[in-house]
Design brief:
Elements: E1 2-13, E2 18-20, E3 23-25, E4 30-31, H1 39-52, H2 57-60, H3 73-86, E5 89-99, H4 106-120, E6 127-132, H5 138-141, E7 145-156
Parallel strand pairs: 5-6
Antiparallel strand pairs: 1-4, 1-7, 2-3, 5-7
Helix pairs in contact: 1-3, 3-4
The chain binds magnesium ion (MG).
Residues 8, 10, 33, 39, 42 line the site of magnesium ion.
């Protein structure tokens, strides 16, 4: 078994679509970035890469490469899962914390889990997503950005 953690943060701006965990969420602002800036999925990608000892998302999908401009982060997660599978590993479970002042995330968590679990080829119960605010404190509290933390356990493909 191998464990990894990931962290990511993106700036909230007007004129961008908000995508979190592969779900498009109606909101006045979206996250800025080279890809779709899905901060939750990026944190999960980094946790998986960390568990694999394969560095981070920036090494594998550099934001200087036009190939990745506007790309869905779910596609990046698919490629990260392929790398883990190449090492004979799959996700045992993942625990993710999304830190955002707004919007309310609870209506979207079930769909996020379904999408992420589908890509990871595991039951949705093995992905936990928690959402919290910072009680109005700091740059997240003032709605300048959203961050996410992820921890993930990798297990051998042939284990249950
Ligand atoms: Mg990112």
């Amino acid at each position: 078994m191998r464990v990894g953690m990931g962290y990511d943060c993106h700036r909230l701006v007007q004129g961008r679509v908000l995508v979190l965990g592969g779900v498009t969420i109606p909101h006045s602002h979206g996250l800025d970035g080279h890809s779709d800036a899905d901060v939750l999925t990026h944190a999960l990608c980094d946790a998986i890469l960390g568990a694999c000892g394969l560095g981070d998302i920036g090494i594998h999908f550099p934001d200087t490469d036009p190939t990745y401009k506007g790309i869905s982060s779910i596609t990046l997660l698919e490629r990260v899962i392929e790398k883990a599978e190449g090492m004979g590993m799959k996700i045992g479970n993942a625990d993710i914390t999304l830190v955002a002042q707004a919007p309310r995330m609870s209506p979207y968590v079930k769909e996020m889990k379904r999408i992420l679990a589908d890509v990871c080829k595991i039951p949705p119960e093995r992905i936990n997503i928690k959402a919290t605010t910072t009680e109005g404190l700091g740059f997240i509290g003032s709605r300048q950005g959203i961050s996410a933390y992820a921890v993930c356990l990798l297990i051998p493909v042939h284990a249950s």
